[in-house]
Each structure stands twice: as structure tokens, then as C-alpha cells.
Predict the structure.
Amino acid sequence: MLISKRISKINVSPTMKVAGEAKEMLARGESVIDLSVGETDFPTPPNVKEAAKRAIDNNQTRYTLNPGTVELRNAIAAKLKRENGLDYSIKEIIVSNGAKQSLYNAIQSLVYVDDEVIFSSPYWVSYPEMVTLAHGQSVIIPTTEENGFKITPEQLKKAITPYTKILILCNPSNPTGSCYTRKELEEIADIVLQHKFYVISDEIYEKLVYDNFKLVSFPSLGNEIKKRTILVNGLSKSYAMTGWRIGYAAGPEEIISAINKLQSHSTSNASSISQAAGVEAFNGPQDYIENLKNEFQTRRDYLYNELTTMDGINCYKPQGAFYLFPKISTFFNKKTDKILIKNSTDFAMYLLQEAKVATVPGSAFGAEGYIRLSYATSKENLQQAVERIREAISKLK
Ligand SMILES: Cc1ncc(COP(=O)(O)O)c(C=O)c1O
């Protein structure tokens, strides 16, 4: 067997089918509107770009300390204190190549054979695969629109076994955009403390919350829960810096040291230039984020209002991230003379071929019957996409 058992166990994401087709159509010169991406169309803030240019000119182009420069970890510690009321020393913080690596490293450092990792569906596509790569078992709690796509205390209690090691919370959530309230998080924290497992809190969309929603960082709920939490965050989404690859994990020193060990034998430090840019992102002016957020709120409202007036589409109104996750199962078994829609992949494929709008089928997130649309694209693109979707679905009988 050429490919290892470990890699053979993970799947190619079902998003690939639609995304691959969209790329081919674009290459053929077709005007595809891409609502499938997980990144903003905004440029990185100019002061951050300048900081990176200065870092190059100042020859900050060498290896840094494996867990990140002292300057960047100090800037992260200051951010956590200022914005979240959290006290972390720099030994409790590690910088990595995007939040994705922080999550991967955290799971590798904590999970092994027999360990169970609880998370909800719809889930971010990488959680189950990361758990499989660590030889752990995913325990998936299905959530519904009625519960705002959030785990209830009863569901969580039922999912706990003697093997439960980690709960992953994605707050705000990709793909649903839902956000837990303080009260909901407190109820979860009580259960975690009672049953003594750990939490990985993925807060990468922290700053993208709307309607004055107050997002509470999970470890800020109290000292005891902080000792059981690995907080993961980064610059990708909030500072329009997906390509710079800066994420971080903050947590108990013992866990961060384990992650440090793993990272020292894989990628070593994140890019020295991106780290210098990161210092400016955290310490420089923050008004850019407010503008980004206001723009996203306008786009969310626009897309939500349009989708909910379309026959057959039902949509939850999320408080965070930059996705809508409408239910489209009413179109199952509908057809045109060319196709029959059997599932969310068929529906996404139909939108791509008929409307030339790329979306992601819900099955990619463990939630059949839905699709994910990103509104991190221009208003003009959204307007065109809406017209095209409306027309395409009117043809389904
Ligand atoms: C929920 C969630 N967590 C983590 C990440 C990883 O972000 P990055 O590696 O770009 O920092 C993403 C990116 O799509 C995400 O949606």
C-alpha cells in the first residue's frame, strides 16, 4: 500500500466537486460568481502592509523563535487583555501558520487512540479530518435552525462518555454564522468543569459579529474554565490577511509547550515578515475592522432579505462570520429537462451550471439539505448572484 493508512482514512472534501467545476468554468472564460470562498474581498490594511515592507528592508527575514517573536506574542497578550479581559503570559501563547495549524497542532497534542472529540454539525470541514489524523473519534452533535445551530446542554451531556477528551466550539460558526450567548457558554462551561474535559474554542470570526451582538471569549468565563481551554484565533478573517498565515493558540503552558514541540519538528516558526505585520495589526489602529464589519452587516442583510423572499428557501439569520446557510431541501426531487436534484451537491452543481454561481453544498459540513453562501464579496456580485439564483430556481419543477 503506497499511501499510508493514516492518510487513506481522510476524505477529499466534497466541496472539491463544485469548486473544481467552478475553476474549470472560470478557465473557459465563463462569468462565475464565487460565493464559495472563506475569505474577504478586502485588501489587507495599508499600515499592516507597510510594516511588512519595513520588516523586509530591515532584514527581519531569518528564523524567529519557534513559538513566534516576543514582540508578536506580547502584542497578542495585550490584545487578549484589552479586548477579552484575559491574562496570558507569552509562554502560554504560540503563533502558527494560520489558525488552521493551531487547531491541527492542538488536536495532535491532545488527542490519541480512544479519545473522543465532540463538536456539532454543521461543522467546519477540517475538524473531523483533524480528529481522524490524530487517531481520535469524532462525536458529532447535530444541531438545527430551531436551536440556532447551537449545542444544547442536554445534547452535550448525552454525548459525554468516559473517553471524552475535547469539545470543539466554533464561535461564531463557519458555516452557519451562529453565535453562542454568554449564558449558553456558561451552561457549557459548567458541564465541562463537572466532567473535566477540555475545550478548543475556535474564535477566528470573533470580530465579525453584527447587530451589536457581544461575543464572549470562552476562557474569559472564569479561571477554572480558562485552565481547560485552548483558545484559537488569528488574523485571517478580521484583518483580511488570509494569505499571511498568522494564527495563534493560547492556553495552559503545558499544552502550549506540547504544541511548541510538535511545531518545532514540522513547520518551525510562522513567516518572520508576516509576524512583523501581525504586530502592527494588533497594535496599530483598529478602525479598519469597524468598516469591514459594517460592510459585512449590510451585505448580510441584503443577501438574507433577498434569499428569504425566494420561493422554497428558508434561511436562518446569523449574528456572525460571513456566511448564510439556507435550507434548500424543498428542491429535492425537483427537476428540469436536464437534471434531477437529489441532494445538496446536485443543488450546488445546478446553481453552478445554470446560474453560474458557486456555493458549497451542506453535505461538506455534515448537514445535508443546505448550502453555504459567502457574502464576503462585492455588493454588485451579490446582486447579480441573487438575480441568477432566482431565475435558476424558478426553472425547477
Ligand atoms: C472555523 C474556521 N477555523 C479556522 C480557520 C482557519 O483560518 P486560518 O488558517 O486562515 O487562520 C477557518 C478558515 O476558513 C475557519 O473557517
About this structure: The two ends are 47 Å apart (CA to CA).
